[in-house]
Amino acid sequence: MHIASRFLKRSAVAGLLASLAALPARADWTLLNLPRGVSDLSREIYGMHMIMLWNCTIIAVLTFGAMIVAMTRFRKSKGAVADRKMLHNARLEAAWTIIPVLILVGMAIPSVDKLIRIEDTSGSELTIKATGHQWYWQYEYLGTGVSFYSHLARDSNFARQKQSGIDPSTVDHYLLNVDKPLVIPTGTKIRLLLTANDVIHAWWVPDFGMKRDAIPGFINEMWIRVDPDKPGTYRGQCAELCGADHGFMPIVVIAKPRAEFEAWLEAQQAAATQLAAAE
Question: So where are the chain's domains?
Fold first, then answer.
């Protein structure tokens, strides 16, 4: 029995070492976790996620550790005899009831605070309406007269066709690029109104930490504020199965410093005015 026990322990250790050795040497561990993001909400959600993760990890280690110790040290084969007092110990039962309740309350309070923050769109400086179509997005900068459609980029669209002869690996940001991206200012609270023209879609950019469904006949809302020191291009996708070309309606957002955004918006308004006059 003792020899069998040692064999099992050594086998378990060997299996663990083999599993670790099989992992890629340069594995990108960030892919296994939530992105920290570039907005207020994404950082707060990431922080809350890490608190929950470590709480659950500690609880799991203590719980399974106690189980493993109990199973290995207090086995019948080692002469262990059940203690009847442990079967109905009022103090232990109270402890393992009260402690989890306190942990849940401690986790719920900050979670509720974050949920309230997520829904609070007050104080927005810019409102953009995003409408999902099969299979592209329409953006309207409310109160400015600027509106446009955002489709899958042509090079990705050509490469995805059957027998196109194009190697997708040669296409820059294959299936994650658009012909006209959404442009927003950094350091500005932006209210995003979401709806759809046909079926349910979902607007999702991981670096913003937010996803909302776009539902026909309804208006959902969310807000984002990109850090002033984080201008750049951020990519996402429709996250709701919306039909045959669901995988071909990406989202691209370019965050510009406030002054550059204002110049871009003025240029778009001038172009819209000229187009309206020509019609």
Answer: 34-77+88-120, 126-278
Fold (topology level) of 126-278: Immunoglobulin-like (2.60.40)
Q: CA 228, 129, 138 angle in degrees (round to 5)?
A: 105
Four-point Cα dihedral 240, 30, 223, 264, nearest 10: -100
CATH of domain 34-77+88-120: 1.10.287.90
Strand-pair category, 126-133 with 136-141: antiparallel
Which structure tokens are listed for 196? 């759809």
Q: What is the pLDDT of residues 29-80, one digit of tens each?
A: 566 788 888 998 899 899 888 988 898 899 899 889 988 988 888 777 777 7
Residue 235, phi then psi, degrees to nearest 5: -120, 145
pTM for the full model? Answer: 0.78
Backbone angles phi, psi at 237, to 5 degrees: -150, 165
Q: How far is CA 204 from CA 121, 128, 185, 209, 234, in A?
A: 17, 15, 18, 8, 11
CB atoms within 10 A of CB 9: 11
Question: 147: which DSSP letter?
Answer: E
Strand order in the sheet with 201-205: 182-185, 250-256, 232-238, 201-205, 210-214
Separation CA 200–CA 213 (nearest Å): 7
